[in-house]
Amino acid sequence: MITKQRLCLVLVMVMLVLLDDVSTTVVEKQCKNRNQTATTEAYVSVTAENVTDVDVCQSGTHPCAVDAVCNTTRSGYQCICKEGFEGDGYTCTKICTGRSFGVGSQCFILSTGYDRKDFLDAVDACRDLGGVLAEPKQMGKLIVKIREMTPEKVMLGWTDRQTEGEWVGMTGQPFRHSDYWIEGEPNSWQGREEDCMEIKFDGLNDSECHEQVNYLCEI
Length: 219
Ligand SMILES: [Ca+2]
Ligand SMILES: [Ca+2]
What we know:
Strand content: 15-25%
Distance between the termini: 78 Å
Structural class: alpha+beta
CATH architecture of the largest domain: Roll
CATH superfamily of the largest domain: Mannose-Binding Protein A, subunit A
Helix content: 25-40%
Number of domains: 3
Bound molecules: calcium ion
Oligomer: single chain
C-alpha cells in the first residue's frame, strides 16, 4: 500500500523529470504542508479553546442584567431580557400590570393622596392587594421613581421594633441600604420610638410606626 509520503516522493521525482525547478519547488511545498496538517489542526484546536476561554457568556463576565440571558454570537455576545421583563438587556425591568410600576425585578403600588396609614394598617392594605409592605432591592432607583410620583413621605416594610437598630423586612429580607439614610438618621428623634422606615426627601428616615403616611406595596 502506497503511503501519502511515498506518493509525494513519487510525485516529486515525476515533476523533476517533467517540470522545471520552480514547479518542483511548488510540489515539494505541497508535500511538506501535508505533513504539517496535523500541527495546523492542533493550532486551530487551541485557538478554538482560547475563544471558549474568553466566551463572556460562559465565563459570567458579561455585562448583561441579572434578569437577562447572555447569548454567544459570532461577533461576541448579546444580552436579551428574560420573559416578563423589558429593556435593552443591560437594564431589564419587570413588566408590571394595572397601576403597578416596575423597578428592577419588582412591581410596586404606591398609595396616593389621602390614602395614608400607620404601619399595621399599611401591612394589612398591602396584604389585601396580594402583596407586602415593600422591601425594594434597588433603593436608589426606587427613590428616584417615587420622587417623580410624589413629594410625600412613603412608608417601606422594614422595622427595628424587635431589636433597636436591627432593621428586618416583612419577608425576612436583611436591610442592605444603609447608604440611603438621610444624614443624621436613623436618630430616634428626641428619644422617640422611631421603629418604622419611610422615604423622606431623597433618602430614608426612621419614624414612629403610628404616623400615618403614604405607603408602598410590593406586588
Ligand atoms: Ca428604632
Ligand atoms: Ca428619624
